[in-house]
Specification:
The chain is built from 22 helices and 28 strands. By secondary structure, it is of the alpha/beta class. The radius of gyration is 27 Å and the shape is globular. It binds beta-D-glucopyranose.
């Protein structure tokens, strides 16, 4: 009975949305703004979690999730809320039909109970695919996407993510993370495109293009949200949301370019860093949120807070005495929308502030204009969402093939002693073990069906783990399996050793508990003892060992690298990762990933590849102190590539000129493969200590055995620029050493 009346109500409301959406369609933003009262404006600036308007406790919703119409009416009629997000604190995944009913009911209730019927904007974290919609395509996490060094593939993955998010009736995605991964302890390292500015900004552009496309009001595109502006990824302690100490110059040199690139690509929204830089919480920092973001970088879109961060100016950062002062600080610093997210205090406090003159109406109008423009650009005034029949490819094979390709291209071969891999003899017996061998969750990581990604309830059906994929390549009898060790506790080694004894090869799959944000904080990068002991124990058998690592961040493996014969680094490869890793092991796929970060050898040896020359000084005063486990950009192949025919068009680079470097790459081995040509440079002398090496361009190409391709890199003066002590980007005249493969040549900037 209850259900029936709800259906009737929905039908009535549906009629109203059809009529009412016509009403506001052609109104200009200016006219709409003029019609709005202050309460309505403040409402537009607020965003609450689904938990506030759904049945159940805020962070523990009824399952399947359902709206509580009374709560929703309160949010819309009384508080005039402009935006809703998430799935009840990330507590569970929602079926596509359910999403569509939820969004439909929100828009209909809004049309019935709000005066101006401005559509409500729903936002979600679709971090590696539409990860909160059941059955969506899940891709490698950003760090794995960066490891592909294939920007077109990253754009394709993001376009699919947009398609499936929009199919779920959601037009706003809190992605991509554009924080640079230069602090490997940080729990969100896997959400970054790695440590390098050029690689990450290239991927930033691809991600924004894939998510947003070039047209507004496109039913297959969403608004991107670059996050988390700025310096979030570089906390000194490595712990999430703790202080960063970053000078204005370093901010602009390392942390701004990804955002600048995304802004240039048209990114419509930005989310703010929950932490503080140099003692000022970013949510209260006018210089960063308005001076830098708006005036210097030219961003014109919407700035949304992160989770409850205005209140945290009081409760965590202690820079405001009460929530009202915090609201004033954040809004005056440049926040347009508050992810409140669990109550309506923000609305009440901001209204009071405006009425008392504490926040000028002009600041409110500025923020609301941006929000209305975003809603217009997304086409929400025309049609808040589109019929399901427009999304036949949701969860399709076509889409999972792209995810598989991305996973394959991310897998990075770090060691291959005596060409152990690929294992081509299917008659051999293999023994598989380790916590990541038979777990989909450990391949996907956090932001997978739930916030922390540990709950297997919603895992996509028919996706294979590494073990299951290996079994489909061998006969069932050829593969034996035992867990061996969980993430942090070792099994009975006598049993494991006796099980492994009769095998020809051993495959050990190590992992890390899915986690992100504060729950992902760790005290050291060292791999868990249990996992190390598992490898050391099996190594006593003296059989060939293949190590597979699927970590959230580079856990230290120094003690076991020499004990194994081959290492495949899988990052967090997503739902197709099991298949991709198994196919790399058996040689159906030739791994072509390259590390998007420097793999440290020891927990405290965090030195990036683009370090300064002083960081090369060893204790014996030689220049050999930089000793990573594996270098940035490193990755082996089952074939070999030869570089030849280097030809520079010139050695002098003037203001308007470019230098063209032509060269060839040959696949001189016997297997198909992909190579990443990486162009580095070294500024020989500069007014700011130059890096020993910096990436300035790259290209990934596929080559058949014996095939040669000619490539070219075009260099401009800006490619060798840096931020000077006056915070200006300049290129100084002088010598620049160009490095490609093992070739070096000096050119001169005039
Ligand atoms: C995270 C953001 C995320 C937001 C909404 C926060 O805790 O830091 O990255 O977009 O929650 O779920």
């Amino acid at each position: 009975m209850k259900n029936r009346s709800l259906l009737f109500l929905l039908a009535l409301l549906h009629l109203s949305v059809t009529l009412q959406s016509q009403y506001n369609r052609d109104i200009s933003i200016d006219s709409l703004l003029k019609m709005m009262n202050t309460e309505e404006k403040v409402g537009q600036m607020s965003q609450v979690d689904l938990g506030v308007v759904a049945v159940g406790d805020i962070c523990n919703l009824k399952n399947p999730q359902a709206l509580d119409i009374d709560k929703l009416k309160l949010a819309i009629a009384k508080y005039k809320v402009g935006s809703i997000l998430n799935v009840g604190c990330g507590s569970g995944t929602i079926a596509m039909d359910n999403w569509r009913q939820i969004i439909d009911a929100i828009q209909n209730t809004n049309n019935q109970f709000s005066r101006l019927k401005i559509p409500v904007l729903y936002g979600i974290d679709a971090i590696h695919g539409a990860n909160y919609t059941m059955g969506a395509t899940l891709f490698p996490q950003e760090i794995g996407q960066a490891a592909t060094w294939n920007p077109q593939l990253v754009e394709q993955a993001n376009a699919i993510s947009a398609y499936e998010t929009r199919a779920s009736a959601i037009p706003w995605n809190f992605s991509p993370v554009l924080d640079l991964g230069r602090q490997p302890l940080w729990s969100r390292f896997f959400e970054t495109y790695g440590e390098d500015v050029f690689l990450a900004k290239t991927m930033a552009k691809s991600a924004v293009n894939g998510l947003q496309g070039s047209n507004t009001d496109n039913p297959y595109k969403v608004s991107a949200c670059m996050k988390h502006f700025l310096g979030y990824s570089f906390p000194l302690s490595g712990k999430d949301r703790t202080p960063a100490w970053i000078s204005d110059r370093e901010l602009r040199e390392y942390f701004v370019p990804t955002f600048q690139q995304a802004i240039n690509a048209g990114a419509k929204t930005v989310m703010i860093n929950s932490g503080d830089i140099n003692g000022t919480p970013v949510h209260a920092n006018y210089d960063i949120l308005t001076g830098l973001l708006r005036h210097e970088l030219g961003f014109t879109g919407v700035a949304v807070t992160d989770w409850e961060d205005i209140y945290k100016l009081v409760s965590v950062h202690h820079v405001a005495t009460d929530k009202k002062e915090a609201v004033k600080m954040a809004i005056m610093a440049g926040i347009d929308m508050s992810m409140t997210p669990n109550d309506f205090q923000f609305n009440e406090l901001l209204l009071e502030l405006v009425n008392e003159g504490g926040v000028p109406l002009s600041r409110i109008d500025e923020a609301v204009t941006r929000i209305l423009k975003l809603k217009k650009d997304l086409g929400l005034f025309n049609q808040p969402f589109y019929p399901l029949s427009m999304y036949p490819k949701f969860g399709s094979l076509e889409f999972s093939d792209v995810s598989y390709k991305a996973a394959c291209e991310s897998v990075t071969l770090l060691k291959n002693k005596d060409g152990l891999l690929p294992l081509e003899n299917k008659e051999e017996k293999i023994f598989v073990c380790g916590p990541a061998a038979n777990s989909l969750n450990l391949l996907n990581g956090a932001w997978t069906h739930t916030w922390q990604g540990v709950d297997a309830t919603y895992n996509t059906k028919n996706k294979k783990t590494i073990l299951e994929s290996l079994i489909s390549n061998y006969s069932k009898k050829g593969v034996s399996y035992s867990l061996g060790a969980s993430l942090d506790s070792l099994g009975d080694m006598n049993v494991i050793i006796s099980e492994a004894k009769s095998s020809d090869k051993i495959i050990i799959c190590l992992g890390e508990k899915p986690c992100t944000e504060i729950p992902g904080n760790i005290d050291e990068l060292e791999l868990s003892d249990a996992q190390k002991q598992l490898v050391l124990a099996l190594a006593t058998l003296k059989k060939p060992i293949i190590l597979v690592c699927c970590f959230n961040r580079p856990r230290i493996i120094h003690d076991i690298v020499e004990k194994v014969d081959a290492i495949l680094y899988g990052y967090l490869p997503g739902d197709e990762g099991g298949r991709a890793i198994a196919d790399c092991i058996v040689g159906k796929v030739n791994p072509s990933g390259r590390l998007p970060f420097t793999y440290p050898m020891a927990s405290n040896a965090i030195v990036h590849y683009d370090h300064k020359a002083s960081e090369d000084q060893d204790i014996d005063f030689s220049q050999n102190a930089y000793r990573p486990e594996f270098d940035f950009g490193f990755g082996l192949s089952y074939t070999q590539f030869q570089y030849s025919s280097f030809k520079f068009s010139d050695t002098i680079l003037n203001n308007t000129d470019s230098i063209v470097l032509n060269f060839s790459i040959t696949n001189s081995g016997s297997k198909n493969g992909m190579e990443v040509a990486q162009l580095y440079y070294k500024d020989m002398v500069a007014s700011i200590t130059p890096s020993v090496k910096k990436l300035t361009n790259f290209q990934k190409i596929a080559l058949n055995p014996g095939e040669t391709k000619e490539l070219r890199f075009i260099m401009h003066k800006e490619d060798f620029s840096f931020i000077d002590k006056n915070l200006k980007r300049i290129t100084e005249p002088g010598a620049i050493e160009i490095q490609l493969s093992n070739q070096k040549k000096v050119i001169y900037v005039r």
